[in-house]
Amino acid sequence: MGGNSPCASCKLLRRRCTKDCTFAPYFPSDDPQKFAIVHKVFGASNVSKMLQEIPVQQRADAVSSLVYEANARVRDPVYGCVGAISYLQNQVSELQMQLAVAQAEILCIQMQHDPVVMPTPDIIDSDQKSYFLQNEFPQYLNFGSSTNVIHDSLKRENIFGHDMVS
Ligand SMILES: [Zn+2]
C-alpha cells in the first residue's frame, strides 16, 4: 500500500491508516466495495476482532471467506451462503440419483444382451445346442411314451376283449 493513501477500511471509517492497520493488507484502497460489503454485513469492529484473534498466515483466507459470506448474505438475506451450500448439496444428491438410475439401466441393457454369463462364445453355442438337444429328446420320448401308453391300453383292451371273446 502506498505510503499516504489509507486502506479502503480506514477511508470508509474516516480514520488515519497506521502502519499496523489490521485491515490494510487485505482491503486495498483500489477496491473499496470489498470492505464496504464486509462492514455492512459483519461490522468493522467485529471484522477487526476476528482478524486479530487468528494467526496472520490465516487472515487472508479468513478475509476472502468473510467477503464471500457477505456477498452471499446480500444476495440471499435469509440463508446467505448456507442457501448456496444447500442448493449445491441438493444438486449433488439429484445427480447421484440420476447416476444410480443410469447405472441400473446400463445393467439391465447388459443383462438383456448377455443373459447367460459364460467365459467364451464357443462354449455358449455348444452348451445351448446340447441344451436344446436335451430338451428336444425328452419331448419326443414323452410323445413316444404317451403313444405307447395308448397302445398299451389298446392292447390291454384287445387282450381283455380277447379274453371276453374267448
Ligand atoms: Zn487502514
TrEMBL record:
Stored InterPro entries: LOB (IPR004883)
Cross-referenced Pfam families: LOB
Stretches assigned to the LOB domain: 5-106
Family statement drawn from the similarity comment of this UniProt entry: Belongs to the LOB domain-containing protein family.
UniProt-recorded name of the protein: LOB domain-containing protein
Source organism: Lupinus angustifolius
